[in-house]
Amino acid sequence: MNDITRPENPDSRCGFVAIVGRPNVGKSTLLNHILGQKLSITSRKPQTTRHQVLGIKTMGPVQAIYVDTPGMHEDEPRALNRYMNKAATSALIDVDVVVFVVDQMNWTTADEMVLEKLSKLSCPVILAVNKVDKVTNREAMLPHLDMLSKKREFAEIIPLSALRETNLQPLEEAVGRYLPESIHFYPDDQITDRSERFLASEIVREKITRQLGAELPYAVAVEIEEFKREGKTLHISALILVEREGQKKIIIGDKGERMRRIGQEARTDMERLFDSKIMLRLWVKVKRGWADSDRALKSLGMNDL
After folding, report:
1. 133 is annotated as contributing to ligand binding
2. What pLDDT digit, counting tens, does each position of 138-165 carry?
């Protein structure tokens, strides 16, 4: 270890932790509850996360830099899905620890696909068995955990509930044990490397996803066109992109009612996150085929991996 990275405090540890798994196993919920703050968007709809989101948690001498990744797909028919797989896979490069999240008693071919990608890694892999609060047959849990333990040599297997914050401390302690000795890479009070513009766009996208659920496909993107502070007020203008005119009508809703609800809910979260009064303006625009187009994804900042 060179002099630049040698910590003055011998107990000081710091490193990157990738949170991986198939879609909808609770990766973003896990990150948010570890941080104690909403950073990554969540929804019951799978594949909500599209980007690598960096969350930083510093507890005393240990700084864990978590990377919340999009769920890994078995199929990649669209440019958007290819991007999400690329984002998830690239997060595994040069990480110090991996947290592999699976969903309670469920093990699928998609989990097997993620496991195969992890087989090439030499860093410790912690298996986080999430949503155990939903398990009704507790007696079946031990045989299931035993089956999982035979899948590969996991550093540790930790049953937990991210939503209920059950067993999060043992997970964080386990992560800390496997991080290398190092100075901290970020100030101790910093929680993300993402810009405020990015966080604002993700809040709007989450509210759309939660409001519409199965009514709207994944082809929705949000661009922040204005992000400007004037005194104590933060002015934010967001452009919502969809692929078809019918999707635009769904988002706007009857007499604009749905758009107003999306704006109200987004503004509430933004005021809490940015600690400012928020003046939020939303527009919807049809941009045909953007989710199938590598060029369109690049224009939205989704193709920079």
Report:
1. yes
2. 888 999 999 999 999 999 999 999 999 9
Please tell me whether the overall predicted TM-score, pTM, comes out greater than 0.85 for this model: no
Q: Which helix (H) or strand (E) holds 146?
A: helix 141-149
Is 107 found in the same domain as 142? yes
Place of tokens 């097997």: 112
132 among annotated binding-site residues: yes
Instruction: Return the CATH number at 140.
Output: 3.40.50.300
Residue 72 marked in a binding site = yes
Domain count across the chain? 2
Q: Is 70 annotated as a binding residue?
A: yes
130 annotated ligand-binding residue: yes
233 annotated binding-site participant: no
> Is 71 annotated as ligand-binding?
yes
The residue among 194, 271, 208 whose CA lies nearest residue 235 is: 271
List, edge to edge, every strand of the sheet that includes 97-103: 53-59, 62-68, 13-20, 97-103, 125-130, 156-159
Tell me, yes or no, whether 66 lies in a domain: yes
The pLDDT of residue 49 is above 80 = no
- Asked if the structure places residue 3 within a domain, the reply is no
Q: Which two tokens stand for residue 284?
A: 């919807």
The CATH number of residue 230's host domain is 3.30.300.20
Neighbours of 37 (CB within 10 A): 14
Range from 41-55, 74-88, 170-184, 235-249 that averages highest in pLDDT: 170-184
Q: Is 68 annotated as a binding residue?
A: yes
SS3 126: strand
| Residue 28 known to bind ligand | yes
- Give the structural domain span for 296: 196-300
Q: Annotated binding residue at 292?
A: no
Cα separation, 157 vs 126, in Å, equals 6
